[in-house]
Amino acid sequence: MKSDKQVQRDVVAELGWEPSVNATQIGVEVSDGVVTLAGHVGSYAEKLNAERAAQRVAGVTLPGSSRRLDADIARSAENVLQWTTSVPPECIKIKVENGWITLSGPVEWDFQRRAAAEAVRHLMGVTGVSDQITIKPRVSSTIVKSDIEAALKRRAQSHADGISVEVRGNDVTLTGIVNSWSERQLAVNSAWGAPGVHNVMDNMTVTF
């Protein structure tokens, strides 16, 4: 079993190896295996990363790490979402019951939904995450068509004049004629990248 002094040395070393933490600003105290971190950090995210780094050391226990109040977890979740630049925090609703976080609300992109769930998943005291975030249903055939045209133009390929875009709810159907497999795939990828799209049906024909 490690002595308090050995645990302290190991935690200091682990903090030094964590690139997201300024270890020189953090003090480490150990009493009966319980580690207390003190000092100054530049952000809430850095605070969480310092705690996670300390917990990686074998035999470490942080005060209150075994269980947290739901209200404390909710506040932590709100804070970490504020620091997650890819997620609009004002759109996300947070509910915590017995450590289980439920996220809800609308976002424009699927990557924002996934980023929000991932940001809160590893917070201290969290027992699980239910992702009930929805993607805003604002698909526009005009926007999808313009996105495809812009993508083809960037790749110096032909225009999207031969591609027809049909939108039903969040589903997009592409029909028409394209000149190559790469042009076809580029059109499909562009349709998937449009805000609110849930499904893309590729009915295009390739002519050589």
Q: Your description of this structure?
A:
The chain has about 210 residues and is an alpha/beta fold. It contains six helices and eight strands; from the N terminus they run αββααββαβαββαβ. The mean pLDDT is about 80.
Report a brief summary of the structure:
The chain has six helices and eight strands; from the N terminus they run αββααββαβαββαβ. It is α/β, with parallel strands linked by helices and 208 residues long.
Summarize the amount of helix as a percent range.
25-40%
Given as residue ranges, the uncertain stretches (5+ residues, pLDDT < 50) are none
CA gyration radius, whole angstroms: 24 Å
Largest sheet: 3 strands, mixed
Strand sequence of the main sheet, in spatial order? 3-4-5
Query: What is the N-to-C order of secondary-structure elements (H for helix, E for strand)?
Result: HEEHHEEHEHEEHE
Which strand-content bin applies to the residues? 25-35%
Shape: elongated
Number of helical stretches of at least 4 residues: 6
SSE layout and pairings?
Elements: H1 4-17, E1 26-31, E2 34-39, H2 44-55, H3 70-83, E3 93-97, E4 100-107, H4 110-121, E5 128-135, H5 141-154, E6 163-168, E7 171-178, H6 181-192, E8 199-206
Parallel strand pairs: 4-5, 7-8
Antiparallel strand pairs: 1-2, 3-4, 6-7
Helix pairs in contact: 1-2, 5-6
Characteristic key phrases:
208 residues, alpha/beta
